[in-house]
Design goal:
This protein has 75 residues and is α+β, with helices and mostly antiparallel strands. It is built from two helices and four strands, in the order E-E-H-H-E-E.
Amino acid sequence: MAGKSSKGGGGKTTKKKKKELTNGRVQYTMRLVESSTCAVCKTPCKRGMDYLEKMSEPGAMGHGVPCILTRRPVK
């Protein structure tokens, strides 16, 4: 086997097809934002204001909250 590489692979590549949603529903994704973003938001929402109030307490730790204003469909 002189001159041949040890890696396998036939050299042919196939393109993956995008999966079709079977139920017809559109899925969405939202960005996680911190309380500082909610504090300066031009259109405050209930979820953001509740999170801001929770994070205002001393010693509070959080991981962010999904922002409905950043909702985008998944392609």
